[in-house]
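Annex B.
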Amino acid sequence: LKNILSSPEGLSEEQHSVRPLLIDRNVSILSLLLDYGLTLQELVSLQMQHVHFGKNMITVLHNKGTERRIMLKEEDKIRLFTYYKTIPEPVRPRYHSTDPLLVAFDFKRGTFRWVYDNDAPKALTAIAVQKMIRLEVARAQLRKGISAQHLRNTFILRCLERNMSTEEIIKRTGFLSPLSIKRYVEYANQGAKGSTVSVALSVA
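Integrase: predicted structure tokens.
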């Protein structure tokens, strides 16, 4: 799925022309879901004040008020920073601010969007992320229905496959209770090949 993001296959002329502006953003989105286990809501809620490029770290806020710190691999930090620098400076999110990290894109104008009433970049919405994933899944000819939740499921299952402790998985995912992991443990123990697990693993 990540590989298809860099491919021009199946793109319209308009999409192809702006692809260089979006590749690093979109790959970073997939990586944060698949490799770091963010939820869709956590992803679109990321603000510049939560991003620490110099420390390779992002702070993720949970809707229950808790937070966790995630250390990014160097290559993932570089990709995220490359996306950030791709945004033209006049509409670029400001460091240490409440500006969104992930910015919506205007395909007609060929640039990232700015909300003048808020004097800030326009945040990428959860709906837009799901649409992006759906379109890329179709281009990659993967099974329909793969979503942000499936990508996070894959992250959790991989943690279990590596025999990671329940405490460590809770720390990495933001789960509030071991009970939240129970169903994933059951899938792993049964060697389940049902829809949720098989779909999740198919995007690896």
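DSSP finds nine helices and seven strands in the chain. The chain has two domains: 2-139, 148-202. Further annotation is deferred to the next reporting cycle.
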